[in-house]
TrEMBL record:
This is G-protein coupled receptors family 1 profile domain-containing protein. The keyword Cell cycle does not apply. It is found in: Membrane. CDD domains: 7tm_classA_rhodopsin-like (cd00637). Its main location: membrane. Pfam families: 7tm_1. It comes from the Eukaryota. Gene3D superfamilies: Rhodopsin 7-helix transmembrane proteins (1.20.1070.10). GO terms for cellular component: membrane.
C-alpha cells in the first residue's frame, strides 16, 4: 500500500531527526573510541551509553527510510521482529547504563564510596548480556510473532504492549521495571547530589564566617598591588600582617565564589539531565503502561509523539554530554582539530 501524505511527513521528520542524533552520537563515539580504556569511569559509561544510542537510532531509522524509498507502508514481518528485538536490546542497554552512571555518581558524591575501577567495564558487560537476553526472550519462548510489531503510527517495530502471552508479559515487565527504576533513581540521586553539594557550600561559608572573614573583600587575592606590598615592607609588622590577612581573606572569598559557581553548575546540570530524561522517556512509558493495562493501542498521533520524544532526547543527550563531560569534550575537540587542521 502506498504511503499516504500524513505518514510521508511522519517518516520524513522522524528520519531527519534520527539522522541528526545518529551523527552527534557517532561523533562522540568515534572521537573517544581510541582512548576508551583511558577514560575515567563516568566518561567510560557515557561512551557506551552513546554507543548503544547510536545503534538504537541506526536500527530505528532503517524502517522509515525503507518505506520512503519504496513508497510503501508495508514491511516484512520477520524483519520487523528482528528490528523489535534489536530496539529492545539497545534501548534497555542505554537505560541500564544511564542507571549505572547515576548510581556511580550517587555513591561517589553522596556516600563517598570508593567504587572499584573495574566497575564500569564489568557493569557494561553485565548490561550488554542482560539486554541481549531481554531482547531475545520472546524468540527463546517461541512467542516472537506476538511480541514485536509496528506501533500505532506504523513508524517503527517495538514490543506490542497489548499482548498478554508469557513472552510478551515478561518483556513488558522487564522493560517497565528498568525504565521506571532508572527514572526514579535519576530524580532521587540528582536531588541528593544537589542537597549534599548545597550543604558542603553552606558549611564552608559558615567556617569562613566563623573565622571572621570579611565578605566584602575582593574576590581576587592578587588584587593587592605590588606597590602596596612594597610599601608594606617599610611599614610596621602589624600593617604587613594586615596586608597578608587581606590576601588570605581574598583567597577564601574567591574559594567561596568558586564553590558557589560549582553548586550552581551542578544544579543546572542535574536539572537539565533529569528534565531531558523525563521529557524524552515519559510519553513512551505512559503509552506502554496504558496499552498494557487497557489492551488497546493509543492513537497513531500519540504514538508518533512518544517515539519522536525519544528521538529528540537522542539528539539532545550528546549535546549535554559534550557540555558537561570535560574528558569527552576534550577528545571531541582534539578530533575536530585533527579534521580541520586547526
Amino acid at each position: 500500500m502506498p504511503v499516504d501524505k500524513l505518514h510521508y511527513w511522519w517518516y520524513t521528520v522522524f528520519a531527519a531527526t534520527a539522522a541528526i542524533g545518529l551523527m552527534l552520537n557517532s561523533f562522540i563515539v568515534l572521537s573517544n573510541a581510541p582512548y576508551v580504556k583511558k577514560l575515567p569511569p563516568s566518561s567510560f559509561l557515557i561512551f557506551w551509553l552513546c554507543t548503544f544510542d547510536t545503534l538504537a537510532i541506526l536500527n530505528n531509522i532503517i524502517e522509515p527510510i525503507h518505506m520512503l524509498a519504496h513508497n510503501t507502508s508495508e514491511y516484512n514481518s520477520l524483519i520487523c521482529q528482528i528490528h523489535g528485538a534489536f530496539a529492545v536490546t539497545f534501548n534497555i542497554s542505554s537505560l541500564q547504563l544511564c542507571f549505572g552512571l547515576t548510581l556511580f555518581r550517587y555513591l561517589v558524591i553522596v556516600h563517598q564510596i570508593q567504587v572499584p575501577r573495574v566497575f564500569p567495564a564489568v557493569y557494561t558487560c553485565y548490561v550488554t548480556l542482560i539486554s541481549l537476553v531481554v531482547g531475545l526472550l520472546p524468540f527463546m519462548l517461541s512467542s516472537q510473532r506476538f511480541t514485536y510489531d509496528f506501533g500505532a503510527s506504523n513508524l517503527y517495530c517495538a514490543p506490542d504492549w497489548t499482548q498478554q502471552d508469557t513472552g510478551s508479559m515478561l518483556v513488558t515487565w522487564l522493560c517497565f521495571s528498568i525504565a521506571v527504576g532508572t527514572l526514579l533513581l535519576l530524580v532521587y540521586a540528582y536531588g541528593a547530589i544537589f542537597i549534599v553539594s548545597a550543604r558542603v557550600v553552606k558549611e564552608f561559608q559558615k567556617s569562613l564566617d566563623g573565622a571572621g572573614v570579611d565578605n566584602t573583600v575582593q574576590l581576587n587575592p592578587c588584587a593587592v598591588s605590588a606597590s602596596n606590598l612594597n610599601r608594606s615592607r617599610s611599614n610596621s609588622p602589624s600593617k604587613t600582617a594586615a596586608v597578608v590577612m587581606n590576601v588570605s581573606a581574598g583567597a577564601d572569598a574567591q574559594k567561596r565564589a568558586e564553590l558557589d559557581a560549582q553548586q550552581s553548575e551542578l544544579m543546572k546540570q542535574s536539572l537539565i539531565m533529569v528534565t531531558a530524561f523525563l521529557l524524552g522517556w515519559s510519553p513512551y512509558l505512559i503509552m506502554g503502561i496504558y496499552e498494557f493495562f487497557t489492551q488497546t493501542q493509543v492513537s497513531p498521533e500519540f504514538d508518533f509523539f512518544a517515539s519522536m520524544s525519544i528521538t529528540i532526547y537522542d539528539v539532545i543527550n550528546p549535546v549535554i554530554v559534550y557540555i558537561y563531560d570535560r574528558e569527552i569534550r576534550r577528545l571531541c575537540r582534539r578530533a575536530l582539530s585533527a579534521m580541520f587542521g586547526s
